Amino acid sequence: MTPVLELRGIDKSFGPVQVLHDVDFSVHPGEVTALVGDNGAGKSTLVKCIGGIHAVDSGEYFFDGKTVQINSPRDAAELGIEIVYQDLALCDNLDIVQNMFLGREHRRGIVLDEDTMEEMAARTLESLSVRTVKSIRQHVSSLSGGQRQTVAIAKAVLWNSKVVILDEPTAALGVAQTAQVLELVRRLADQGLAVVLISHNMNDVFAVSDRIAALYLGRMAAQVRTSDVTHAQVVELITSGRSGDLGLTNGVSA
Amino acid sequence: MTDTIASPRATEAPTISGSVRGYAERVRGGDMGALPAVFGLVVLCTVFSILRPSFLTPGNFANLLTQGAAITVIAMGLVFVLLLGEIDLSAGFASGVCASVLAILLTEQGLPWYVAVAAAILTGVVIGAALGTVVAKLGIPSFVVTLAAFLGFQGLVLLLVKGGTNISIRDQTIVAIANKYLPPVLGWALLALGVVGYAALQLLRARKRASRGLVADPIALIAARVGALAVLGGVAVYILNLERSRNPAVVSLTGVPIVVPIIVLLLVLGTFVLRRTAYGRHLYAVGGNAEAARRAGINVDRMKISAFVICSGMAAVGGIIAASRASSVDPNTGGSNVLLYAVGAAVIGGTSLFGGKGRVLDAILGGTVVAVIENGMGLMGYSSGVKYVVTGAVLLLAAGVDALSRKRAAATGLR
């Protein structure tokens, strides 16, 4: 299966500091790709390059097999790439529907088309089998952490997106809510979306991902099928960049 | 899953008791809304009418409305700025500057009233654009920018009215705004139009939502709302249509002050903008989480500038009303306590100083509270000193309620 999103040989520097070295990364539809790496490995930078927030210095960016230029977040959104950041970017004083359509409201003339938005939001939440909210007209401030995460993900899915990138979606959640969100992540992939999951939690990674991409000091140490590796190997890849045959040799991709 | 209830579409159909329970829950959770203002209004009116029976006369009621009109309109504009979590301390003197422009154009230039009014409002718009640009583009806190403007405009008013002379306004149209009354029949007709229009809008919306399978307000709730509006409006119009002249044989004094329908029109317009347009939605979003709004593609700087434009534009309208009521403009127009009363009105009505929460209706409720205090204490014969102290205390109380309800909301996880 061809990857929906593929990066080849990405380099990115901030001034004198090179953050990404010759990174290859591919994301397949219908799969959850876990992006792992220690703090400072370059996960966030890579995601921001994908999302068009940072311009890459060199390298190729393929979407649906075609090479594309991503210069701004708008370009990425137009392709169908949505990023759910860790801080979720929800407005507490607005309700679920209002948050999901923020900045892209449907309107008739100058009047907001609340009914259509409410229907679309309800349909999206239903398609994600979200049954944890009492009313989609309740304010986000009254939602739990897991519910907020759900709303943020539903917001990303609403726009017929093809790639959804989740930045540590379970970092602040309890056990039950983590399970809910992971279930939702799995469901997104099962619906044919390509999902990128950034996580520090190996249990989460092994619970839902199909592939694991491990970054080590700005280099892609390995991109492997989850079923082919063990916990210990992934931890080694994260901490030292190699594990047995896998990973970097002398700091260069094997 | 502990908090599972039902799929979102199958949300339980709301009933009257459900709506009441929901409201009670919100209040307990820290979202007091207009409750403190309404409660305060009832208490104040009761106390004043017991202590000073003249408080409850039709004449005083009409007086009260025109007394609070200018402050209420300025407060309505302030709501837009407060929604963003900003403040405009110069709104009072901005209204003074606009009123001066109006007076000068009317008297010295002899221009017709509509040109003068347009120029005054344009002045407000320019002032707002300048303030908003400085706040948004230079990033100076609005508190400082508008404090500087407060001083600057105070000086500007002095310069415009040539060192403190009093320009009297003779234009009949302008003077009529706050000093003349609608014919009683027209008062009833406008009320009927308002009630029927409100009922039609509510029913249409409920019907449309129900036909699409969405949760709609129950008919009983709509009936209660429409009924409340009809009763309150009816009582007000009835009282205002009573003869309140001391000597009806000489001059008859009946009807709703002309300024009241103007304020109602501004209320409808402002509420429409805030509740039904994308612009209003984005104002709330920027006030709630500016970063989220920015990432959603909302131009935060433009929102800020536009809010200041609306605020100063409304201040101009307030200034025109103040000039009309006094039939003159002097260096103190829009000065002294006007700004604090206006901020107080918005906050007392339930608009948050922290941004993201507020309605145009709040300004009217709060403005009424402020007007009642001012009017009632005047009737009691208290000096200006006492009035200032009491109004200051009420403002502090309202801000305290705002802060505490926020804290409470945080404690109950509603924030």
UniProtKB/TrEMBL annotation, chain A:
Pfam families: ABC_tran. Signal peptide: none annotated. The keyword DNA damage does not apply. Gene3D superfamilies: P-loop containing nucleotide triphosphate hydrolases. CDD domains: ABC_Carb_Monos_I. Residues 5-242 form the ABC transporter domain. Keywords: ATP-binding, Nucleotide-binding. This is ABC transporter ATP-binding protein. GO terms for molecular function: ATP binding. The keyword RNA-binding does not apply.
UniProtKB/TrEMBL annotation, chain B:
The chain crosses the membrane at residues 33-52, 64-84, 91-107, 113-136, 143-161, 181-201, 222-240, 252-274, 305-326, 338-356. InterPro entries: ABC_transp_permease (IPR001851). It is found in: Cell membrane. The keyword Transmembrane applies. It comes from the Bacteria. It is a multi-pass membrane protein. Keywords: Cell inner membrane, Cell membrane, Membrane, Sugar transport, Transmembrane, Transmembrane helix, Transport. PANTHER family: ABC TRANSPORTER PERMEASE PROTEIN YPHD-RELATED-RELATED, XYLOSE TRANSPORT SYSTEM PERMEASE PROTEIN XYLH. Part of the binding-protein-dependent transport system for D-xylose. Probably responsible for the translocation of the substrate across the membrane. This is Xylose transport system permease protein XylH. It comes from Streptosporangium pseudovulgare.
